[in-house]
Amino acid sequence: MSRLAEHSTSAQVALVATLGLLPFLGEIGADADRVMGPAGLDAGRLSPASEGRMKLSAYVDIMERAAEVSRCENFGLRYGRQFPATSHGLVGDIALAAPTIGMALHQFVALFPLHQEASAVALREEGGLLWLEYRILDWRIFERRQDAELTIAMFQNLLRHAFGEHFRPEEVHFEHPNPGQHAEHEACFDAPVYFGQRTNAIAFRPRHLNQPMPGADSARFSRLLAGASLCRRPRDTVPLAELVRGEIRARLPDGYPPIEDVADALGVARWTLQRRLAENGLSYSDAVCQVRQTLALNYLLLPHLSISAIGQLLGYAELSPFSRACRRWFGAPPEQIRLRQRQGA
Questions:
Q1: For labeling, which of 111, 252, 318, 345 is most exposed (least CB within 10 Å)?
Q2: Which of 122, 173, 126 is nearest to 149 (CA)?
């Protein structure tokens, strides 16, 4: 079950993101009311064809609950895999009508905030590859594996629409830990899949970007783009402290994240970041500790992750400092914390 941190979040996502959700839940035998009811949604009235929006936190929560109710650990992956490239709403329509593949990708990235707030989508080049990246920025939307897997699977569908059915990525990255059984992930993407990464991403060769999109329509593209320019741009809905925690979370697998790196990622000076955190009664080291502590409790619930692997995901180079931290946080070493959690389950 997805859990949010103490404060609610107002970030929203377009209802089109739920297109096909009810039929898919029916196919796998999951009770739609059990999945959506706790989020305050009436499954009978859900209309993804409408222009409505819903809270991003509720949407992510629905995906986590769907995996639980259906007992399908890879729910998000399977839902995203069957999500048609033609059903991404206005942002997707603009990409599909773009004159070239390169233009489609750049517009999709630039306009994604109109589809989903408090999220970052980027297209960057590194190591001879293009990386289409996705991450929810709001730390308070904590458990989000299903959303990440469905989104990257949806991205693959869009890329296959653009490049052809034989498109094959070079790599796929996910920020969440290895779920244990991931053969289905590699079969879905037909590529190596890596977990515990800084962000969620699909990497591919930057070829044929000047090739026309299959549905290129310059007149429609211009008309839709003009309409998008009139849409309300999302407000800055994520408080700085939550953005800081989110950046810390993303960087922990690489070790203790330097404050300079986090400040650079957020576009502020180090001293400005420290001052603004202090105004909220928080120090940077406290923020790192809070993120590590919260992640530790959640990772210790995953029996396939070894204690040493958890320590590495939390940025500890050796097991002993992680064990000392657990004693400080919880009064016991990680092995005992894991045992308590199992006994309490």
A1: 345
A2: 173
CA distance to 23, 59, 197, 247, per residue, from 193 (Å): 28, 25, 10, 22
What is the arithmetic mean of pLDDT over 262-273?
96
Confidence of residue 16 (pLDDT cuts 50, 70, 90): confident
Class of residue 224 by CB neighbours under 10 A (exposed 0-12, middle 13-18, buried 19+): buried
CA distance 272 to 148: 31
DSSP string, 173-186: E-SSPP-S--HHHH
Contact 152, 200 (CB under 8 A): yes
**The residue type at 20:** G
Q: Which CATH number fits domain 240-344: 3.40.50.1370, 1.10.10.60, 1.20.1250.20, 3.40.50.300?
A: 1.10.10.60
Alpha-carbon dihedral sign for residues 334, 336, 341, 342: positive
Q: How many CA atoms lie within 13 A of 185 on its CB side?
A: 23
Q: What's the whole-number average pLDDT of the chain?
A: 92
Distance of CA 260 to the CA centre of its chain: 24
What mean pLDDT comes out for the span 249-262?
Answer: 97
Query: Of how many residues is the chain composed?
Result: 345
CA dist., res. 157 & res. 316, Å (int): 37
List the chain domain ranges. Answer: 12-228, 240-344
Which is it for the CA torsion 130, 134, 137, 142, positive or negative? negative
CB 207 within 8 A of CB 167: no
Q: 156-173 pLDDT, tens per residue?
A: 999 999 999 999 999 999
